Inverse folding.
């Protein structure tokens, strides 16, 4: 079974890891110049560097749809620079997963594949996809929705280590991003992680710099540009998050169930 994941950021990468380890073939797409924050755990970096490794799983850039199958035969995840999903009719995947996380549908259609899964808000099960997987942290994180939509975006980051909005660093001005600190750096409140046209991007929290935009990225004021983890565990910078893996489990369930690989009613239910 071939699954095409639209998006290759940190959450999409967690999904890819779940599916890949479950034995499914996975291909991914992203923009030519990805703006991922948690770059150390994003398969989108294969587009930038030609290849990347996350948790011992290797991804490589595919120049076109024809190269996807040869890379899959080599045991790596192909990543295409194809934000419009033009490769979908060529590859004819068994499932399409929209994990762009744009908070709205950017063109995924329920007819794209036999199974289409929308990740997060912006999708309605039964309308533009077969199933939606919840991305909001909390009791319903990772659950599969077969009718309706995910919880609407609140604009407030989920709690990690007791902190929410303070975790996110935003570009202080319009211009070109100049990175000063590396992912994994220990930071204190007031440290300067980057500048934009000379305006400092100041750390609002003490912890570990879990993500930051690469040097030279064009940004606009208020754009998400960094992420601080108050739990101070550097190893978290190099592994998929609990949220990404939880959502990945929901996507796996949706694909297996809708494709018929998983029965709608499990054996234990029938015997009760």
């Amino acid at each position: 079974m071939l699954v095409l994941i639209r998006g290759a950021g940190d959450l999409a990468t967690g999904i890819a890891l779940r599916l890949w380890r479950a034995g499914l073939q996975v291909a991914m797409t992203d923009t030519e110049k990805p703006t991922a924050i948690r770059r150390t755990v994003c398969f989108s970096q294969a587009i930038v560097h030609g290849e990347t490794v996350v948790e011992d799983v290797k991804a490589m850039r595919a120049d076109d749809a024809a190269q996807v199958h040869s890379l899959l035969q080599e045991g790596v995840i192909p990543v295409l620079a194809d934000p419009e999903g033009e490769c979908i009719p060529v590859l004819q995947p068994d499932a399409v997963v929209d994990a762009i996380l744009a908070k709205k549908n950017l063109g995924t259609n329920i007819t794209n594949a036999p199974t289409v899964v929308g990740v997060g808000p912006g999708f309605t099960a039964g309308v533009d996809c077969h199933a939606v997987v919840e991305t909001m942290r909390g009791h319903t994180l990772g659950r599969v929705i077969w009718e309706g939509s995910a919880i609407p975006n609140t604009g407030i980051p989920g709690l990690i280590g007791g902190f929410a909005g303070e975790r996110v660093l935003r570009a202080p001005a319009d211009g070109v991003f100049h990175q000063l600190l590396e992912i994994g750096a220990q930071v204190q409140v007031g440290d300067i992680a980057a500048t934009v046209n000379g305006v400092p991007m100041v750390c609002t929290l003490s912890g570990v710099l879990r993500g930051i935009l690469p040097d030279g990225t064009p940004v606009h004021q208020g754009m998400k540009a960094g992420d601080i983890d108050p739990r101070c565990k550097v190893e978290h910078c190099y592994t998929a998050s609990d949220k990404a893996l939880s959502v990945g489990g929901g996507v796996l369930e949706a694909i297996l169930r809708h494709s018929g690989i998983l029965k709608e009613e499990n054996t234990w239910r029938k015997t009760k």
In short: The CA atoms of residues 70 and 76 lie 9 Å apart.
